[in-house]
Amino acid sequence: MAVAPPRTSSATHAVTNQAEPLEDYNVFEADLPLVEAVSREGGDFAVDTIRAVGEIAGRRETIELGRLANENPPKLRSHDRFGNRIDEVEFHPAWHELMDVHASHGLHALPLR
């Protein structure tokens, strides 16, 4: 009796009905209504910042950080191992990296300008 070679998923069929991954693009420049609204509503002072953040937000690496942050929500540690109250929130490193991007571009204070 002959043994058939093992099948691999790529050998069974070609997937042709799926879009390419949406990555490595500028999310701000790709959103024409947003670009127009920023200008119309007096946000021209922030266009350079928004464009820079839009480029970062569309990177494959940044999208992956978002996925990791979503899959690993913050965890409340109410007590330490000795039973002392600590009320500490533990964040996945992806949260910190995304917050660094926001803070380094001043996004946390942008609405106050």
Core attributes:
113 residues, mainly alpha, two-stranded antiparallel sheet, 5 helices, 42% helix
Segments where pLDDT lies below 50 for 5+ residues? Answer: none
| Structural class label | mainly alpha
Main sheet overview: 2 strands, antiparallel
Q: Please count the helical segments.
A: 5
What is the CA-CA span between the terminal residues? 77 Å
Number of strands: 2
- Using only CA atoms, what is the Rg? 22 Å
How many independent structural domains?
1
What is the H/E order?
Answer: HHHHEEH
Shape: flat
Beta-strand residue fraction: 5-15%
Strand order of the largest sheet: 1-2
- The portion of residues assigned to helices is 40-55%
Mean pLDDT equals 91
Set out the fold topology.
Layout: H1 9-12, H2 32-40, H3 47-57, H4 60-71, E1 75-79, E2 85-90, H5 93-104
